[in-house]
Amino acid sequence: MSNPDEEPHGVGVAALIRQRLGECSPAERRVARALLASYPAAGLGTVASLAERAEVSAPTVLRFLARLGFGGYPEFQRALREELAERETSPLSAYRAAERTGAPPEGALPRAAASLPEAVAGTLAELPQGELDGAVRLVADQQLRVTVAGGRFSGLLAHYLVLHLMQVRGGSRLLPATPVERTDMLVDVGRKDLFVLFDFRRYEEPTLALAREVTARGAKVVLFTDRWLSPVAGLAEVVLPSRVESPSAYDSFVPALALVETLVAAVIDRLGPVAGSRLKAMEAAQQTFGGA
């Protein structure tokens, strides 16, 4: 980029676009939305094709990229291509890369001590306050029914979040895996529904398909993802990205877990006495029904 300091360290291009959206002119926002709606493919064609997609002029596209800190369209596309390579990284490819370079001499514990705290701190520092506020506003809205879903690994985060929401606000549920139960839960989705989705690199097509279907029916989506942003970001009302640096070949969910706990804390703050009353009722119900 023409000025490296313009982009926060570790933030991907899509996350940077979302961060700068509030600073843009209406025409520049059309460019941003066109990019996010078909990311990153929309940015890999010509300036003219992106301008046509956004229904703006080519100079508007270039002004928007300059606002992001890019020196020109080739530099922007180079950043997108580098992101594409990173997005496709799998545990196996990361393992093979580490194998070629040899095992780090310091061991797993020092690597974890070096990478995990920095990844958590960076995730929280880079999160726009407006995105967190938007997520809190939606999740704390008791007029909305909350459904939470994740993928093969991120389903653990989804389950963790929904267990907290059950206790502090109610009206929350985990999307079931079995087809009959899932269909029963989704058949009546509408404007009074909020979906909190977890989708990280090697993004899962069923999660995108779910987001498309529920948003078409009027539901809102809050997305937890990585810094490269899941394709679901183009459909989401709020996007909460996190870093994934880890001491192993696997991406770390430690920063994402920190974001989940931050969201829970902020929801409790917003609900105030309502959360306290709900917790008290849950404690009493556990005594009555023998809940663990």
From TrEMBL:
Ranges for the HTH rpiR-type domain? Answer: 11-87
Presence of the UniProt keyword Membrane in the record? no
Q: Name one GO biological process term.
A: carbohydrate derivative metabolic process
Under the heading InterPro entries, the entry gives: Homeodomain-like_sf, HTH_RpiR, RpiR-like, RpiR-like_SIS, SIS_dom, SIS_dom_sf, WH-like_DNA-bd_sf
Which key words tag this protein in UniProt? DNA-binding, Transcription, Transcription regulation
Report the PROSITE patterns cross-referenced here. Answer: HTH_RPIR, SIS
> What are the SIS domain coordinates in residue numbering?
135-273
Q: Which residues form the signal peptide?
A: none
Q: CDD domains from the xrefs?
A: SIS_RpiR
Pfam families the UniProt entry points to: HTH_6, SIS
SUPFAM superfamilies xref list: Homeodomain-like, SIS domain
Recorded GO molecular functions are: carbohydrate derivative binding; DNA binding; DNA-binding transcription factor activity
Q: What is this protein called?
A: RpiR family transcriptional regulator
